[in-house]
Design brief:
single chain, Ubiquitin-like (UB roll)
């Protein structure tokens, strides 16, 4: 796919107005599902054509380790990335996590040579959740909020 085809300046939406080599992603770092402890990490000028899920996980973990505002979020062993919402598409009603699409929206974070992020249908302004899979599974079994 050429850069001329992966964005639209004629009738742009925020999701299609920028090339896949220069997007803004929001990663929702989830510390606790029941207590809704979520902090957004914004990655600007991110290259979806070159980066894999393993690259995205690494970049997010580096931000968490180096940014002082993420200090309370360092105690979680994050191991999963999942698309939360796509720009200009339907949104989930759950404020913490999208319970749908467990089979097709989870991003492979283990294979550094794996699929590029653009192959997951990720575009500019896509929101991605980052969390510990075990915590998600427990919360999904009993989605009770505690605040």
């Amino acid at each position: 796919m050429s850069d001329a085809l992966d964005y639209d300046m004629e009738e742009p939406l925020t999701s299609t107005a920028r090339p896949l080599t220069n997007v803004t992603l929001t990663v929702r770092v989830i510390k606790s599902f029941p207590y809704r402890n979520v902090k957004n990490l914004v990655l600007a000028n991110y290259n979806l054509r070159e980066k894999t899920g393993a690259d995205l996980m690494h970049d997010c973990l580096q931000h968490i380790k180096s940014e002082g505002s993420f200090r309370p979020f360092r105690s979680v062993d994050y191991d999963t990335l999942k698309i939360y919402t796509h720009a200009h598409r339907s949104k989930t009603v759950n404020l913490v996590i999208n319970f749908d699409h467990d089979d097709d929206w989870i991003i492979d974070t283990r294979d550094p040579q794996g699929k590029k992020l653009c192959e997951y249908d990720i575009e500019n302004e896509t929101e991605i959740s980052m969390y510990k899979l075990e915590d998600y599974q427990k919360f999904k079994e009993n989605p009770e909020e505690k605040w």
